Amino acid sequence: MSRAQVAFVLLASLTGAVYLAMTLVTLPHLRDAAGGLAPFDLRPGGYSAAQARALLDSLDAPARQYYLSVQQRLDLVFPALEAVTLIVAFRTLAKGWLAVVLSIVAALGAVFDYLENHAVAALLRTGTVTDDMISFASRWTLLKSVAVTLSLTALALLILRAVYLRMKR
Fold first, then answer.
1. Given this model, what pLDDT does residue 4 score?
2. Mean pLDDT of all residues belonging to the chain
3. Is pLDDT of 1 > 90?
4. Contact 158, 90 (CB under 8 A)
5. What is the distance between the alpha carbons of residues 132 and 49, in angstroms, rounded to a whole number?
6. Residues 104-140: b if buried by 16+ CB within 10 A, e if exposed
7. What is the DSSP string of the chain?
8. Residue 109: its pLDDT value, please?
């Protein structure tokens, strides 16, 4: 394997490790702390004011602190890792304008994720949460979900294409 390939495997492994830490540890902990309600990060379709308030009401002070510290620290590094991993993959598997467009979508997914994290932190810290604050946070969650879904779907299709072309040879 070349150095570039080793670097990519390490990058993808680190990205996967952070993702697994969130999906297997921090997000289940938050779901349990919320009495079974899904944390904001696990609501790809966004959330209504009532849903957000129900979640916020179910989180006590230690659970909010855990969300703001442990979960959001992991989610501070994950969007960048995910975007860089996707961009490297797109630049390897696609060429020209397609690689550029897909890289932009992946980068937007990270930007939307960071904006979502900032908005969720405001919801968790604020004593009086307005419907506008919830709508703002939900919008970033939805945009992040769309960008990540498009990116991962494109990656899967590019991998299938590469496998097909390799088998055809």
1. 87
2. 96
3. no
4. yes
5. 9
6. ebbbbbbebbbbbbebbbebbeeeebeeebbebbbeb
7. --HHHHHHHHHHHHHHHHHHHIIIIIHHHHHHHTTTPPPGGG-TT---HHHHHHHHHH--HHHHHHIIIIIHHHHHHHHHHHHHHHHHHHHHH--HHHHHHHHHHHHHHHHHHHHHHHHHHHHHH-SS--HHHHHHHHHHHHHHHHHHHHHHHHHHHHHHHHHHHHHH-
8. 98
